[in-house]
Amino acid sequence: MLTQLAIAVFQVFIILALAPLLSGMIKKVKAFLQMRKGAGILQPYYDIAKLLRKDSVVSGNVSWIFHAAPAISFVAVLAAGLLIPVYILNMPFSFAGDLIAVVYLFALSRFFIALASLDAGSSFGGMGGSREMFIASLAEPAMMLSIFAIALNVGSTNLGYISGAVSSMGIDAVSPYQLLAFVALFIIAIAETGRIPVDNPATHLELTMIHEAMILEYSGKQLAIVELGAMVKQLLVFSLLANIFFPWGIASDLSAAGLAVSLIVFIIKISILGVLIALVETSTAKWRLFRLPNLLSISLMLSFLSLVSFIIVKGG
Questions:
Q1: Where in the chain does DSSP place strands (E)?
Q2: What single DSSP character describes residue 88?
Q3: Is 202 exposed, middle or buried (0-12, 13-18, 19+ CB in 10 A)?
């Protein structure tokens, strides 16, 4: 029992420790590609620490939803982190949920932040919440379908079991339906993490912002929790890409050497994904809102084609 608890606590520590680092690395790579010096890779840690030292300024018109939303959103994302294999396959809370639970925990986090944006009564908040729900209605089905294509291959929706089964297949795991599902989930990762061309995390222009519009009314400690939750969600989405489609290197036991190698491999995999995201953001312009369904529909179609390819390959 103590061992299982230690695994869960260590996973939470890894997630909280690496989430700001990944965000800082992406910003640094983007600055390098744009020939700027940019902020240091540790800047997100300083920003979170600075916000935690400040008091929150809150409108007198908000209800309990506005105050509770950051904590609920953060806890929902962190709970999803206990279901996603990061450094070890056998997660202690894997019995509590699978990929469907992860998708809905992400949806719960999004729902309360969007609800809080409406609760504040700000026109920008309402606009951001509306746009977020619009994108989510297309992103969530594609996200579930893309992972479900891999789940069909191994016969389970448990994420740890999927990673272990794909890892044991070796090079045979690389198949047309897996590649299609990976591309689909990569597109969804851009939408889920609010990256260009879907959203621009570095802007405060009212005509383009989505995530930033929803949290304009937050400040101080509440804003720190919201921002850290967004960083954690970004890390977890990248973890799905890394450890579902390329799970090689993840530990299957509690040996010190295996865990150390697993952590190093995990950091390398999410760093590569972070560089890819930075390349996409640097080489792509922000799309208009009503063009985004075209992009997300491509992801949904690729997910569907992945399922069809699986049926053809296995049926043949």
A1: none
A2: B
A3: exposed
Q: How confident is the model at residue 204 (pLDDT cuts 50, 70, 90)?
A: low
Task: Answer yes or no: are the C-beta atoms of 220 and 63 closer than 8 Å.
Answer: no
Q: Angle at which helices 123-154 and 220-245 pack, to 10 degrees?
A: 20
Q: Is 316's pLDDT higher than 60?
A: no
Three-state DSSP at 251 gives: strand
Global pTM? 0.92
Tens-digit pLDDT profile for residues 83-95: 998 888 877 777 7
Q: Give the alpha-carbon dihedral of 30, 35, 39, 41, to 10 degrees.
A: 50
- What pLDDT sits at residue 113? 92
pLDDT of 198: 87
Distance CA(151)–CA(143), nearest Å, equals: 13
Q: Which residues contact 255 (CB under 8 A, 6 or more apart)?
A: none
Whether 38 and 23 have beta carbons less than 8 Å apart is answered as no
Amino acid identity, position 162: I
* Cα distance between residue 277 and residue 199, in whole Å: 13
Tokens of 57: 């300024």
Q: What residue has token string 């996200």?
A: 143
